[in-house]
Amino acid sequence: MLSHRQQVGNLGEDLAADFLKDKGYQIVERNYRKKWGEIDLIVTKSSGLILKKIEKYVFVEVKTLRRHGQGIFPEEEVTFWKQKRIIRAAKTFLAEKKISKNIPWQIDVVAIEIDSLSKEPIIRHLKNAVWE
User: Fold this and answer.
1) pTM
2) For residue 70, what are the domain limits?
3) Strand, helix or coil for residue 38
4) What pLDDT tens digit does each residue of the chain (132 aa) get?
């Protein structure tokens, strides 16, 4: 049985995946895990109608909080050490999949607040939120 925290996290990842698909991203992988870090979503942005050319890889950290009036933002939970683990995991993914060094990549954060009364999510997409 999943804990409440895991349920909220899974809901957030589903909302983020749908949000990014609506923005034209393609989901490549979910919950990419290594001993030293995890990436919630790996997506690509492509161009071309028939023959799609990958323009860039985007590694996405999803942070979800249920809002109860506290002054905490989900994106504040992406600590310095968490950022370092995400960078290492992203580089490992690129090496494992033999992704060309000519294809750019970035790390984004999707911050989701779910209002405890209305249950409506507020979604913010912070592009290039993590860098070396």
Assistant:
1) 0.92
2) 4-130
3) strand
4) 888 788 888 999 999 999 999 999 999 999 999 999 999 999 999 988 787 889 999 999 999 998 766 678 999 999 999 999 999 999 999 999 999 999 999 999 999 999 877 788 999 999 999 988
